Amino acid sequence: MIQQVENPIIEIHDLSVSYEKKPVLWDVDLTLPAGKLIGIIGPNGAGKSTLLKAVMGLLPLSSGYINILDKPLKEVRDKISYVPQRESVDWDFPTSVYDVVMMGRYGQLGLLKRPKKSDKEIVMDSLSKVGMEGFKDRQISQLSGGQQQRVFLARALAQQADIYFMDEPFAGVDAATEKAIVELLRQMSKEKKTVIVVHHDLQSVARYFDWIILLNMRLVASGPIEEAFTPELLQETYGGKLTLLTEISDLIQKNRFPNRE
Amino acid sequence: MSNFYIILTGSLVAMSCGILGCFLILRKMAMVGDAISHAVLPGIVLAFLWSGSRDSLTMLIGAGTLGILTTFLIEFLTHKGKLQSDASIGVTFTWLFALGVILISAFAGQVDLDQECVLYGEIALVPLDTIILASGTDIGPYAIYLLGAVFLMVVLFVSLSFNQLKITSFDPQYAISLGISATFWNYLLMSFVSFTTVASFESVGAILVVAFLIAPAATAYLLTHDLKKMIIIACLIGILSAVGGHYLAMSINGSIAGAMASVAGILFGIAFVYVKLTSKKVAKLTSGVAVST
């Protein structure tokens, strides 16, 4: 079930990526619609983060190409924003919450330039969107996991991009942060932003996303949640982990397409 | 006057190294300075054999080339060879240093160089090697001008590209996603480390350069959580080490470079104990776990 769309915001064509000759992604070919909340779902080692990194130009591609807004990555860098995994950085780095969020403006600032008043306002606005304005002078080494994730989201928001790529933003965060992130994603979706999220908690998939990509080295499915989030396709994605899958299909029956408030 | 020149030389080296050392520590590449200061030996010997002269510029070029080659080799082994970064550093510099030792011993008759001089330097001789103008005026030691110029270049480099250095040290992948090349800034920083190391060790010796690259920055890391303050504190600690080291050496009539490095180590020890007694900040060094609030 791979549904292609007209006028895609992202087009991935025949993409393959390998680490040291070991393929991680095989022939991924998909198009994504604009303005949706998109989840990338799949088991550990399925290449979810790799797909995101390939799109962000952080990894060499073995074959294929990626177009964003019909252009190669280099021409649209200011339209896209990346939220890496929280564990990818050293949180003991000597800097403050405010300074980390200001990094979101560095792409626009360029060499030599100091942040302007408008940059500072954008940073404060981004901090308040994630409920961290009270922590702006806090050293980043003194943040909890959930707060670290919010700082990363605020930094991405400060870029004022149209497309956001988030690598596991829900991993290891507290319930309050998870709720805050979901609220933020809904808000961004209302503002016609496209958000692509690597996610691994199957229980919440149907509640969070409008469109999903099922991935296990190969592309299994890409389509609206109603059509792509089915037990058969999940079975195909997750392979033999049957006990898990029966639980999941029960869950799907129970909370399939709940009302979005 | 010669006391003043020795302290000034030590302080200039300490400040240049301290500033760069802050970024090396935050990038977990503290040992690169050690590697460069050893790996330049074959460059010096080859420059000497090729040109037949022992003037500083030739040496600087030979050593500088090898220094940059070392950083490229380390990066290559780490990223393309998938070797751990500490292993790449270890393999690269021991091999190049050994090559230098072989070159010196093979051409022992022709080369008026020895590795002891490269390693320990002789800061006490700095005031003797002065620049004398055509008019016959003595305008002070040559090393002060060289190291002063290096210090100004380092300050200029870091203040102009502070944001880029900071973001590529903290989160290189995110920097790349913004279009800031992590590789470019890494090589530029390493070139500065290489250049500073080479310019400094001629007067103060490799051991003191390595000590100044790491100890003041590590001390400052313990004392603050702000990168700008960390750089300033590292400079102050460096000056303190140079002054303290000089008077320590005078009082015990020992090696000046050795005493300066020792004082830098002692200051680190004092800061460590101070931080451990006053707060739990030091937990971040040992456990790396963020203190949750």
UniProtKB/TrEMBL annotation, chain A:
<dbReference type="InterPro" id="IPR017871">
    <property type="entry name" value="ABC_transporter-like_CS"/>
</dbReference>
<feature type="domain" description="ABC transporter">
    <location>
        <begin position="10"/>
        <end position="242"/>
    </location>
</feature>
<comment type="similarity">
    <text>Belongs to the ABC transporter superfamily.</text>
</comment>
<dbReference type="InterPro" id="IPR050153">
    <property type="entry name" value="Metal_Ion_Import_ABC"/>
</dbReference>
<keyword id="KW-0067">ATP-binding</keyword>
<dbReference type="Pfam" id="PF00005">
    <property type="entry name" value="ABC_tran"/>
</dbReference>
<keyword id="KW-0813">Transport</keyword>
<dbReference type="GO" id="GO:0005524">
    <property type="term" value="F:ATP binding"/>
</dbReference>
<dbReference type="InterPro" id="IPR003439">
    <property type="entry name" value="ABC_transporter-like_ATP-bd"/>
</dbReference>
<keyword id="KW-0547">Nucleotide-binding</keyword>
<protein>
    <submittedName>
        <fullName>Metal ABC transporter ATP-binding protein</fullName>
    </submittedName>
</protein>
<dbReference type="InterPro" id="IPR003593">
    <property type="entry name" value="AAA+_ATPase"/>
</dbReference>
<dbReference type="GO" id="GO:0016887">
    <property type="term" value="F:ATP hydrolysis activity"/>
</dbReference>
<dbReference type="InterPro" id="IPR027417">
    <property type="entry name" value="P-loop_NTPase"/>
</dbReference>
From TrEMBL, chain B:
<dbReference type="InterPro" id="IPR037294">
    <property type="entry name" value="ABC_BtuC-like"/>
</dbReference>
<feature type="transmembrane region" description="Helical">
    <location>
        <begin position="57"/>
        <end position="77"/>
    </location>
</feature>
<keyword id="KW-0813">Transport</keyword>
<feature type="transmembrane region" description="Helical">
    <location>
        <begin position="204"/>
        <end position="223"/>
    </location>
</feature>
<dbReference type="Pfam" id="PF00950">
    <property type="entry name" value="ABC-3"/>
</dbReference>
<dbReference type="InterPro" id="IPR001626">
    <property type="entry name" value="ABC_TroCD"/>
</dbReference>
<feature type="transmembrane region" description="Helical">
    <location>
        <begin position="33"/>
        <end position="51"/>
    </location>
</feature>
<dbReference type="GO" id="GO:0010043">
    <property type="term" value="P:response to zinc ion"/>
</dbReference>
<feature type="transmembrane region" description="Helical">
    <location>
        <begin position="6"/>
        <end position="26"/>
    </location>
</feature>
<feature type="transmembrane region" description="Helical">
    <location>
        <begin position="89"/>
        <end position="109"/>
    </location>
</feature>
<feature type="transmembrane region" description="Helical">
    <location>
        <begin position="230"/>
        <end position="249"/>
    </location>
</feature>
<feature type="transmembrane region" description="Helical">
    <location>
        <begin position="142"/>
        <end position="162"/>
    </location>
</feature>
<keyword id="KW-1133">Transmembrane helix</keyword>
<protein>
    <submittedName>
        <fullName>Metal ABC transporter permease</fullName>
    </submittedName>
</protein>
<dbReference type="GO" id="GO:0055085">
    <property type="term" value="P:transmembrane transport"/>
</dbReference>
<keyword id="KW-0812">Transmembrane</keyword>
<keyword id="KW-0472">Membrane</keyword>
<feature type="transmembrane region" description="Helical">
    <location>
        <begin position="174"/>
        <end position="198"/>
    </location>
</feature>
<comment type="similarity">
    <text>Belongs to the ABC-3 integral membrane protein family.</text>
</comment>
<dbReference type="GO" id="GO:0043190">
    <property type="term" value="C:ATP-binding cassette (ABC) transporter complex"/>
</dbReference>
<feature type="transmembrane region" description="Helical">
    <location>
        <begin position="255"/>
        <end position="275"/>
    </location>
</feature>
<keyword id="KW-1003">Cell membrane</keyword>
